[in-house]
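Write out a sequence, fold above all:
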Amino acid sequence: MTAIAASPVNVAYLITGVLFILGLRYLSSPKTARLGNRLAALGMLIALIAVLTQGMVQWWILGIGVFVGAAIGIYSGRVVKMTAMPQMVALFNGAGGGAAALVAAGELLKILNANPGAFVPFDQTFTIVLTSAIGALSFSGSIIAFLKLQEVMTGRPIVYPGQQIVNGIILVLVLGAAGMVIANVNITTWFTVALLAALVLGVLFVLPIGGADMPVIVSLLNSFTGLAAALTGFVLNNNVLIISGALVGASGTLLTLMMGKAMNRSITNVLFGAFGSVQTATGGSSSTAGQNVRSLSANDVGAMLAYAKQVIIVPGYGMAVAQAQHSVRELADQLEKRGVDVKYAIHPVAGRMPGHMNVLLAEANVPYPALYDMDEINPEFSRTDVALIIGANDVTNPAARSDKSSPIYGMPILDVDKADNIIVLKRSMKPGFAGIDNPLYDDPKTAMLFGDAKKSIDAVITAVKTL
């Protein structure tokens, strides 16, 4: 029996797949995330070289595309601020979905031009139209997510009467047009209808999503893009696209479910609940909210922290906006020199994307063992002298436990209110991104330090050094 020699390209794709899997595995931990990123990048490089050697088109055309794409990626990764990382992720994710849709559309035109009037088999029309529809939805939805995160448009849910009915009608239109393509009825016309309807559905799909749900929706759109990429692999008969797309789709779906669990909400509630809409007289808002707020100076805060035994730092989007992560690390170093035990409490949905706080603190070289997830750190708050909250509004809101009228009721939160003292760093008394007031600020144990988070922490550091 004669052995069949393995194709060098398929071997390269196999190596790429293994590196992608290892990269994803290492990305699951902050300690090994950099190694995982490098392994995945190496896998992509091997895949690109394999594609360049196949001679599908002139190699220099693909080479230019690779060079331009790499240049944009490197430039963006180096200059984009950490506060803008969520919107960059949303934008790049949309680019992936758009690319999948364009590739599928191009393949369809190639098939139709090669055999005008010929019947296109089911397996080709099905994968092509499905790839294009999902890719287009991911593209337009990601663009809206980008605009919301960039605050070009409001981060609040945009809703109108009958919105779900309209979305349902458009979804039926997408499916109906796709069915006509599969049935080989006016393929070009109905394919265009399916593509345009999917683009519109992507926009309307994300418009009612509030800013507080952005970590969930970004994960979900990421899974859509992965699915589109995997389907593109079937369209092009490319194994590495199937593997990588399936990995992205599966991990994105799992992350979406984990984010939903962290908020104690179902995915359907996230998609159709319009969480983040402005609340009036319910959900933690009241006419007396903020009337009992106590304000401290940076010197007072410095003294409280310096003479504490244990301090838990709770980072949020306020830290990201102020680019205060390096100052936070310096403050922790100063406190530890005085024998204070400093820990960091990380809520799964703090910030604007999954792992946002981990990324920021890793950039500041905060030791990984000092980072604790919600389940690990919550029992510590009752033994903590000071909980220092830096712009983390919604994930510390005790209304989630007690106020059934609150839109975040039932969402697991960090138990900061169980600490002996609570210090909150905020610019003002405006509510968080979810648009609801936080009764924690009226707690007698809570004190506010108003101002830019970085400047406030720097002033606290100065105060600690002078003690």
Remarks:
- The chain has 17 helices and six strands.
- The chain has a mean pLDDT of 84.
- Residues 85-114 form the longest helix (30 residues).
